[in-house]
């Protein structure tokens, strides 16, 4: 007997799965897999993997939106191939996609391509923004653990007063690796 199986995902612990779960329940899902994880790669989502493993020929996988299942064309393609091999139909509620029809398969492929394009554009804009900020001298990365004056003081204490690495680390409230970098003149 075939089943209607749902999958719901939100990206962070602060978000709620309730809206997606309500839609899946209303559609008639007999089993729902859900998780709160980033959607970058399908391999890093255990509930999605469990869901895909659970599905059998004739089952229907239901999701609220395409981006809940895959965030890249590669992931979407892998999942689509797996579903096809298993004989599972995918229904995407908010985008009215049904891979049980040829029109649905076309729409599925097109939306996946657009989602990937959008992700690529967003990444390009982020890279451009970071480059522009660096041009303006906006610092990136971790805040420096020690000021240049503290680094100079560390070198002085080590050379003149023979402080040990652990004494210096304790005195400046940093780890030994930071002290070694300060002594070499390249502290981050």
UniProtKB/TrEMBL annotation:
Which GO BP terms apply?
Answer: DNA integration
User: Which InterPro entries did the record assign?
Assistant: Cro/C1-type_HTH, Homeodomain-like_sf, Recombinase_CS, Resolv_N, Resolvase-like_N_sf, Resolvase_HTH_dom, SSR_resolvase
Stretches assigned to coiled coil? none
From the UniProt record, which GO molecular function terms apply?
DNA binding; DNA strand exchange activity
Q: Which UniProt keywords apply?
A: DNA integration, DNA invertase, DNA recombination, DNA-binding
Quote the CDD domains the UniProt record gives: HTH_Hin_like, SR_ResInv
Which Gene3D superfamilies does the annotation name?
Homeodomain-like, Resolvase, N-terminal catalytic domain
User: Per its UniProt entry, which superkingdom is the organism in?
Assistant: Bacteria
Q: Which family does it belong to?
A: Belongs to the site-specific recombinase resolvase family.
Q: What is this protein called?
A: Resolvase
Per the UniProt record, the source organism is Luteibacter rhizovicinus DSM 16549
């Amino acid at each position: 007997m075939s089943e209607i199986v749902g999958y719901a995902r939100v990206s962070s612990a602060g978000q709620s799965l309730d809206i997606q779960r309500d839609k899946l329940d209303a559609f008639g899902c007999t089993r729902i897999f859900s998780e709160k994880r980033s959607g970058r790669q399908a391999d890093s989502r255990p509930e999605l993997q469990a869901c895909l493993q659970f599905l059998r020929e004739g089952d229907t996988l239901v999701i609220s939106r395409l981006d809940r299942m895959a965030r890249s064309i590669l992931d979407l393609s892998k999942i689509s191939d797996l579903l096809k091999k298993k004989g599972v139909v995918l229904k995407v509620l908010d985008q009215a996609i049904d891979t049980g029809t040829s029109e649905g398969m076309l729409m599925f492929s097109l939306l996946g391509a657009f989602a990937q394009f959008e992700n690529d554009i967003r990444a390009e804009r982020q890279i451009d923004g970071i480059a522009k900020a660096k041009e303006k001298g906006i610092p990136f990365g971790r805040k420096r653990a020690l000021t240049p004056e503290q680094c100079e003081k560390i070198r002085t204490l080590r050379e003149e007063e023979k402080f040990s690495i652990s004494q210096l680390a304790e005195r400046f409230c940093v780890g030994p690796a930071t002290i070694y970098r300060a002594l070499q003149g390249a502290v981050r």
